[in-house]
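Subgroup meeting minutes
Present: P.N., E.W., G.H.
Scribe: E.W.

1. P.N. recapped why we're keeping a running log of single-chain structure predictions: easier to compare across weeks, and new members can see raw inputs and outputs side by side.
2. G.H. added today's entry (430 aa).
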Amino acid sequence: MTTSLRERRDRAFGSGAPLFYADPVHIVAGEGVWLTAADGRRYLDMYNNVPCVGHANPRVVEAMHTQAQTLNVHSRYLHEGVVHYAERVTGLHAEPIDSVVFTCSGTEASEVALMTARAVTDGTGIIATTASYHGNSTEVRKLSYSRTRNDTVDPNVRFVPYPQRFRADFPEADDAALTEHYLQQLHETIQSFADDGIQFAGVMMCSILANEGLPDIPSGYMSRAAAMTREAGGVFIADEVQAGFGRTGSWWGYEVTDFVPDIVTMGKPMGNGLPLAAAAANSELLDTFRSRTGYFNTFASSPLQAAVGNAVISVIEEQNLLANVTTTGEYLRTQLQNLARRCANMGDVRGHGLFCGVDWVEDADSRVPDVDGAITIVNALRKRGFLISNAGELRNVLKIRPPLVFDRSHADLFLSAFEETLSDAGLLAS
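Output recorded in log:
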């Protein structure tokens, strides 16, 4: 009997290693927004945030090739390209962010952010949302509520409900009242640290609440949450691993939700597939972090990372991809919203730029999450050659997050396939 690639993978990685789709895709090549499977079939990539400027982008590949055959060393040397890249990254941020620590993954960036927050405040108490995910390390994992429920509870980590409109605690409340409600929950959680004799260090949230399912955040919440955090002596950490690098149509998700964080974590799209991530803040905060920790990362701040990172920024700027993300994203959401008027299972369509979430429900009136239905749609689209996923606190949100080079023609292909999928399932009203 021939051993399948999946069986070999299970033995090599362990049978719990995650795979997408009931029938996983065996990918052998990628170009732009397209992926090619071993059987020659092409799939439109509607999910991957890592190759943000497209799979096998020629500019990025050339930068990697040129630098790899010239020099690649660890970070304890002076190198013009590395410093230039650091200046370029921080220059994309709002003031007073002017300094950066490079890492190899978003998890490492979250670790740096946590260490910085705790170093500058002399506190340990950290707050995240009840649907957050910020990485896999021992400390960062503690900020993932769903992953810690069966673990020993750490008194230094506490969770707040994330702000939202679609399933708000008080659906009848207006925007201002919802903002006050969720801020009060944050205030009480901050106060709970003091009540227990624990020094508060800060809050970590994704700027657009991506893992929470991209909920519509009541206006003013993020800026006031950041201010409340500072008033209590903490720092506000914005997780931009998914939200950053043009995903929303702006460089950073925090620009969309209208606030300025103290620390920003970045990752996935920075290297277009090369391991590259970072935490950025003002130099005063990071100077304290450096002096307290002596942090060093062998493979971060390398000439190879810098060359690739510079190429990614150049492609985004020169191809005007922020504008493409804005216009294509608006078109995609508008068409999905139009389709939702004919499909009672599409409870809510939301998002920013080329990051859309479709809240899949049993029916529009009850808004009861339909996880099985969402998974069915994801797998049905995979059979048609379109790759999306499901996410959110309840795993019922269709997650649509294509590379930034995704354009209107690609959107039309997807929309046609999506409509056909709904029609074949008998989910569309005439």
